[in-house]
């Protein structure tokens, strides 16, 4: 089964308030088995527009990724995030098919 991912791009507008979002998202992320693959970090925007912060979060499945986003716990965290940042977020199903070079 393919994994699920959140791909987020964020411009934080209020760093102190954003810390409240980070604290609030910990419980739903733990409950749904979220694992950070990218959490900020150095980057170069090669094409298109960028935001200051990039995040990739992995879940065991696409359904888990959607369930986390739609959960009551994350709804509360999201309400905090919306007051402290401008964000783009995509929930996407991973790919587990053939790769370049596979026979």
Give the mean pLDDT. 97
Shape summary: flat
- How much strand? 25-35%
Structural class: alpha+beta
> Mind telling me the C-alpha Rg?
15 Å
Low-pLDDT residue spans: none
- Topology, number of strands: 4
- The percent of residues in helical segments reads 25-40%
Order of adjacent strands in the largest pleated sheet: 2-3-1-4
Distance between the termini: 21 Å
Could you give the order of the helices and strands? EHEEHHE
List keywords for this structure.
single chain; about 100 residues; alpha+beta; 4-stranded antiparallel beta sheet; 4 strands
Tell me what you see in this structure.
By secondary structure, the chain is α+β, with helices and mostly antiparallel strands. Helix content is 38%, strand content 29%. It contains 3 helices and 4 strands; from the N terminus they run E-H-E-E-H-H-E. Helix 1 packs antiparallel against helix 3. The chain is flat and about 50 Å long. The mean pLDDT is 97.
Topology:
Layout: E1 4-12, H1 15-31, E2 35-39, E3 53-59, H2 62-70, H3 72-84, E4 85-93
Helix pairs in contact: 1-3
In short:
This protein is of the alpha+beta class and 103 residues long.
């Amino acid at each position: 089964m393919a994994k699920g991912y959140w791909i987020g791009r964020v411009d934080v507008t209020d760093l102190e308030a954003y810390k409240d979002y980070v604290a609030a998202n910990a419980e739903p992320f733990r409950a749904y088995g979220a694992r950070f693959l990218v959490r900020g970090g150095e980057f170069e925007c090669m094409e298109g527009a960028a935001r200051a912060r990039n995040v990739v979060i992995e879940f065991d499945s696409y359904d888990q990724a959607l369930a986390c986003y739609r959960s009551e716990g994350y709804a509360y965290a999201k309400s905090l995030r919306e007051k402290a940042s401008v964000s783009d977020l995509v929930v996407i199903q991973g790919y587990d098919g053939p790769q370049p070079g596979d026979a």
